[in-house]
Design brief:
By secondary structure, this protein is an alpha+beta fold. It has one helix spanning 51-60, and strands at residues 13-18, 24-29, 33-40, 43-50. The longest helix is centred in the last third of the chain and has 10 residues, at 51-60.
Length: 61
Protein backbone atom coordinates (compact mmCIF):
# COMPACT_ATOMS: atom_id res chain seq x y z
CA UNK A 1 0.00 0.00 0.00
CA UNK A 2 1.51 3.30 -1.05
CA UNK A 3 1.63 5.92 1.69
CA UNK A 4 0.62 8.71 -0.66
CA UNK A 5 -2.28 11.17 -0.65
CA UNK A 6 -4.50 10.77 -3.73
CA UNK A 7 -5.42 14.49 -3.74
CA UNK A 8 -2.19 16.42 -3.12
CA UNK A 9 0.36 13.64 -3.76
CA UNK A 10 2.05 14.07 -0.38
CA UNK A 11 4.32 11.09 0.31
CA UNK A 12 7.01 10.05 2.77
CA UNK A 13 9.86 12.45 3.52
CA UNK A 14 13.29 11.57 4.83
CA UNK A 15 15.44 13.27 7.42
CA UNK A 16 17.59 12.71 10.47
CA UNK A 17 16.88 11.92 14.08
CA UNK A 18 19.39 13.99 16.07
CA UNK A 19 20.37 12.78 19.53
CA UNK A 20 21.54 14.93 22.43
CA UNK A 21 25.14 14.05 21.50
CA UNK A 22 24.34 15.30 17.95
CA UNK A 23 24.59 11.88 16.29
CA UNK A 24 22.43 11.59 13.18
CA UNK A 25 20.48 8.51 12.08
CA UNK A 26 18.23 8.37 9.04
CA UNK A 27 14.49 8.48 9.63
CA UNK A 28 11.38 8.28 7.45
CA UNK A 29 8.43 10.60 8.12
CA UNK A 30 5.16 9.16 6.76
CA UNK A 31 2.19 11.47 6.18
CA UNK A 32 -0.98 10.87 8.22
CA UNK A 33 -3.01 8.95 5.60
CA UNK A 34 -6.66 8.12 6.28
CA UNK A 35 -9.15 6.00 4.31
CA UNK A 36 -12.20 8.16 3.58
CA UNK A 37 -15.41 7.43 1.71
CA UNK A 38 -16.48 10.49 -0.29
CA UNK A 39 -19.00 11.13 -3.04
CA UNK A 40 -17.54 12.16 -6.41
CA UNK A 41 -19.99 12.87 -9.27
CA UNK A 42 -22.76 10.97 -7.47
CA UNK A 43 -20.59 7.87 -6.96
CA UNK A 44 -19.20 6.96 -3.53
CA UNK A 45 -15.47 6.21 -3.64
CA UNK A 46 -13.00 5.10 -0.99
CA UNK A 47 -9.76 7.07 -1.25
CA UNK A 48 -6.61 7.59 0.79
CA UNK A 49 -6.04 11.23 1.74
CA UNK A 50 -3.85 13.06 4.21
CA UNK A 51 -5.39 14.80 7.21
CA UNK A 52 -4.62 18.28 5.88
CA UNK A 53 -6.65 17.53 2.73
CA UNK A 54 -9.38 15.99 4.88
CA UNK A 55 -9.53 19.19 6.93
CA UNK A 56 -9.83 21.37 3.82
CA UNK A 57 -12.52 19.05 2.38
CA UNK A 58 -14.59 19.38 5.56
CA UNK A 59 -14.33 23.18 5.37
CA UNK A 60 -15.60 23.24 1.78
CA UNK A 61 -18.69 21.12 2.57
Amino acid sequence: MARKCEICGKGPQFGNRVSHSNRKTRHKFDPNIQHVRIEVDGVKKRIKICTSCLKSLKKSV
